[in-house]
Amino acid sequence: MTHPARPWNFSAGPAALAPEVLAQAQRELLDWRGTGVSVMEVSHRGRDFMAMAEETEQDLRALMGIPDSYTVLFLQGGATQHFAQLAMNLAGPEDRADYVVTGHWSQKAVQEAMPYVNARVAASTEADGFRSVPTQFEVDPQAAYLHFTPNETIHGTEFHHLPESGDVPLVADMSSDILSRPLDVSKFGMIYAGAQKNIGPSGLVLLIVRDDLLRRPGRPMADIFRYARHAERDSMLNTPNTWGWYLAGLTFQWIAAQGGLEAIGARNQAKADALYAAIDGSGGFYTNTIDPTARSRMNVPFRLHDEALDATFLQASAEAGLMALKGHRALGGMRASIYNAMPMQGVQALIDFMGDFARRHG
Amino acid sequence: MTHPARPWNFSAGPAALAPEVLAQAQRELLDWRGTGVSVMEVSHRGRDFMAMAEETEQDLRALMGIPDSYTVLFLQGGATQHFAQLAMNLAGPEDRADYVVTGHWSQKAVQEAMPYVNARVAASTEADGFRSVPTQFEVDPQAAYLHFTPNETIHGTEFHHLPESGDVPLVADMSSDILSRPLDVSKFGMIYAGAQKNIGPSGLVLLIVRDDLLRRPGRPMADIFRYARHAERDSMLNTPNTWGWYLAGLTFQWIAAQGGLEAIGARNQAKADALYAAIDGSGGFYTNTIDPTARSRMNVPFRLHDEALDATFLQASAEAGLMALKGHRALGGMRASIYNAMPMQGVQALIDFMGDFARRHG
């Protein structure tokens, strides 16, 4: 099977998957594990799929060092649905919850939770245009949880320290930075992440929930929205996204083969350092205005000194095999998303192109 | 690429996909539409995916003859989530809704809706062990909707007529019989279906909603649960299951290439007729006790005259390349699910095996 040279794909999500993962998925698409059929064609409750599902969870537990006192769930609905669903599960109708707002996604998390909890903004960086992350704020000790967004995909900020929340459980939407470096899971009440950046294809959402939070009463709701019910049924309360679960499993194996989260973390830091150095060293041709202590290692927004060059930049970069560099419509400019599946070689190709473009158009 | 002979896959779901669909998905897994990357790796809001999504909807509209006054949605959560979500959207907290209960799935539909609507069982066939479908019942004219399950995947019953509901909108969970024959969509208020039988892989749910029902106020809830918001954003309110959507598109093209729903419907009827004839003509070796006027064309449960032979039957059928014939644990015995992707050749292979097995063990 031939195909054209693979472009370097800087899409913010759905994002590039590891080529080894895609190649294996292609190889076994018609015959998975000797069944003679596709992984998409077998019962999720059958022996083969159940074994794969269990292996996948164990691989993730090993990668992240997830304590036994946490439940892992593979659900549907994306992070957005769980903005609402986590409030339904972790808070009662009269409860309060605190939110840290650092950009588009954390704002959305508050908004979707509002019908289910008295959501309070405990800290916000809106006043500085979401160019930083808060370092100090007061958490309501009665809050059901403190929610934050460790990495803001659109604004390009990232927490490099954990918010202090005392006894209030920390809940994190890690959609765009999960599995990007080692993490102390025991500091969190709940971590969740849409799959389509560092885990697998879209349509799958991963949740890691401290068991005591599963026992909170929540409110009257359908069983299908109740995390505790999904936990009792090992994420098979209804038919899961079996293809997504399978690709997540291949991705976890791939991360382990790369050396695990220590090695991935070092590589991600080197990639981000090189790209920010190229931007900062461009003599103002390219700019990134995020507080250097809060720059994202995953999503690097930047602007050209003259936005009249944007269209030329996008066309020339696409012709050079650099794909999906257009910034989010809310901010304009460019954005390079450099998740786990983007190797240093791809980042270097971008840096080389940017240098060349600046020389030609400077 | 070599693989063993493909078995005939009678799985109830996730179920067999058309081999032509799988082959195309495999071929273009690393390079979709000349992008150089997988369909899983592109933005759902990019030009290529948006074009595919729109074509897929138009293909479905053409296949099913969906009137312009209906909205088509490609969402997540499976039919089970929408048991709850449809009640949240189509009914206010004080409203009543009527349900027809004909087996496991329609019971589940009532149960998940209960926190959101005053659900009443308008008719049930529980008294006869769910071996038939009701022909007469009184609908509450004030009901927000009448819900029914045209095909019960576990019990193996199917409506071959529509319930009369007057002005009360008819809502149908067609997970296991959508696209299996021509349908007059204009008779329905809403049709929905999990993808994993006749549409594509699991993790995608299709909804066809009459536009006036989208304007019902529902209740306070997060935007992500509101059908009207998904409609405004063409099912891209959040990141959809892009792989599922893509495979649904390939499947719709495949159905059209088979001759559309008329041809598929004739083929499905012939498959079911042949299998029921083999059961009924087995001199009692095999039995199906469903009212003949309510037998499912999609899911054919049957028992051996001596259940001590079940294990032998399952092992021998697997060795003969007939996969996943074990009945649902709630009913025992056998079940052959013969959705669109199962050709007459596969059904004939099953019939031949059954005849041979009966001769050897009769």
Summarize the structure.
The first copy, chain A, is α/β, with parallel strands linked by helices. Chain A has helices spanning 19-27, 47-64, 78-90, 104-113, 211-214, 227-232, 242-257, 260-280, 310-319, 344-361, and strands at residues 8-9, 70-75, 96-101, 118-124, 146-148, 151-152, 157-158, 170-173, 190-194, 205-210, 286-287, 299-304, 322-323, 334-337.
Annotation, overall tally of beta strands of chain A: 14
Low-confidence stretches of chain A: none
Topology-level CATH name of the largest domain in chain A = Aspartate Aminotransferase, domain 2
Q: Count interface residues per chain for the largest interface.
A: A-B, 71 and 71 residues
* Number of separate structural domains of chain A: 2
Backbone shape of chain A: globular
CATH superfamily of the largest domain in chain A: Type I PLP-dependent aspartate aminotransferase-like (Major domain)
Radius of gyration computed on alpha carbons of chain A = 21 Å
